[in-house]
Amino acid sequence: MSALDGLEVRRTTTAQQLADGLADRIMAGAFGPGDRLRESAIAAELGVARNTIREAVRILELTGLVRYEVNRGAVVIAPTPENVEALYTARERLETAAAVRTPRPEQLQAINTAFDDLVEAAKTGDPKQIVDRDLAFHQAIVTTLDSSRLDDFYAAMTKELRFYLTVLSKDDTPDEIVAEHRVIVDAIRAGDRDRAVAEISAHIDTSVQRLKQLLADDR
Amino acid sequence: MSALDGLEVRRTTTAQQLADGLADRIMAGAFGPGDRLRESAIAAELGVARNTIREAVRILELTGLVRYEVNRGAVVIAPTPENVEALYTARERLETAAAVRTPRPEQLQAINTAFDDLVEAAKTGDPKQIVDRDLAFHQAIVTTLDSSRLDDFYAAMTKELRFYLTVLSKDDTPDEIVAEHRVIVDAIRAGDRDRAVAEISAHIDTSVQRLKQLLADDR
DNA sequence: TACAGTTGAACTGTACTACAGTTTGGTTCA
DNA sequence: TGAACCAAACTGTAGTACAGTTCAACTGTA
To answer: Is B218:B166 a contact under the CB 8 Å cutoff?
Structure first.
């Protein structure tokens, strides 16, 4: 522990900070799906040049939260049934692939902890926290794949998914959610891979159905 | 089939075209790993404004071929041992996950065709084509996962990998490569998933070793 | 009343200029 | 030989300008 520990020069650009900030705002629902990010308006409001905003939004594009349309600029992504379907299919493939592997002790530990956190969150009933813990639990499962690149890819999808859940203000029933996850954890703990895979598939399947229902109601 | 099929207005921006062009040049080796993309120089040479180049490079960043460093701009990615390792680990996970699934007839057909194409290429001995077909074959395997998002993710990794192979000017021994892939195809055709998984793992393992050897020699 | 056509404001895509701060490679000096 | 310094090159950001596109409101017509 050096005396200079934690001391660090600001090693980031304005555009990067703006991108981070914008991502937060979008996740918080300040911009809805399909909304355009108007460069001039944002630039004026934040007191930066338009090209800086433009660059920030390009960086934002890396996270998948917005996509560019020619002559319309950046548009916030929208949870269409196809998007949701594709997202969950990819999740299912990765998580089941992870479930057939034998987790190392610390990985199993991480899964257990993530589950406990989820149970904890369910008790409080705070929807935002439940969603966070829910997603973190699944990320922990994917970690069993031992691939940093897949971890990153999954994390990006998680970001997108969390946004969808935010805008659809998912009505969760805490007990049910905990129960669904508990069977997964039990199967993993028991080392019963086939059952783990089956439970994960089932869980993701019901999740996607629930989400698509929300989508339909929303319309 | 409409009478207007294929008719389309040019729906792209200058920056997008520049990004595509730059990607081609990088893949072709015009810029080596670690090289900086100097905005002013490129802008002057191509007769466009610097901010347009800047935007093009940001778009290019989406493909993973370059990354930004503060105050140094865009830098072409380099095949470090860690990068290569991570890339191949992710490939291994995805391809083996695909191999445990039962391909639909048209997917099996696509794999067969991809393999035949590879054999064909091996006969010509053209290294560039062999690499192309090799990667296309593996992409065909991943398609069995039935996930467009994973297909896209894998394609992005393929792009990166092809670049690494390009700069390391892989010395391939055609017959060996065909043999390695043939055992995979045989296992898939036979429906022997365990063997398919094992062969894929072995193949990827030898590939990564070979590549890391090239890397070491290169130094 | 419904609908095609027109118009204008708002906005994007691109260019150009400018400048402070950082990086880099070379050169001088101890 | 190595540290200190310096100037050139380059990035990050600001600001202005303008052509082309989009979009919604307005107008005229059947």
So the answer is: no
**Chain A residues within an 8 Å CB radius of B147:** 86, 89-90, 93
pLDDT of B8-41, one tens digit each? 556 799 999 999 999 999 999 999 999 999 999 9
Beta-strand runs (E) in chain A: 36-37, 66-69, 73-76
Domains of chain B: 14-76 (1.10.10.10), 81-218 (1.20.120.530)
Protein-proximal positions, strand C, CB < 7 A: 10-18, 21-24
Look at B89 and A153 and tell me if their CB atoms are within 8 Å.
no
The structure tokens 């190392």 sit at: A104
Query: From the list B58, B96, B149, which residue is nearest A86 (CB)?
Result: B149
Contact between the CB of B9 and strand D at under 7 Å: no
Separation CA A94–CA A146 (nearest Å): 12
Least confident of A202-206, B32-36, B83-87, B125-129: B125-129
Q: Which of B61, B217, B194 is nearest to A57 (CA)?
A: B61
Check CB contact under 8 Å for B89 and A146: yes
Q: How far is the CA of A39 from the C1' of D29 (A)?
A: 39
pTM, two decimals, is: 0.94
A5 vs B75: which has the higher pLDDT: B75
CA-only gyration radius of chain A, Å: 19
CB contact under 8 A, A62 and B61: yes
What pLDDT is attached to residue A70? 96
Please tell me the distance from the alpha carbon of residue A213 to that of residue A207, in angstroms, as a whole number: 10
- Quick check: A49 contacting B, CB < 8 Å? no
B1 touches strand D (CB under 7 A): no
Strands (E), chain B: 36-37, 66-69, 73-76
Q: How many other β-carbons are positioned within 10 Å of the β-carbon of residue A82?
A: 9
- B8-21: b or e for each residue (b if 16 or more CB lie within 10 Å)? eeeeebebeebbee
Residue B9: the pLDDT is: 53
Cα(B196)–Cα(A42) distance, rounded to whole angstroms?
A: 53
What mean pLDDT comes out for the span A93-116? 97
Taking the C1' atom of D15, which residue's CA lies nearest?
A49
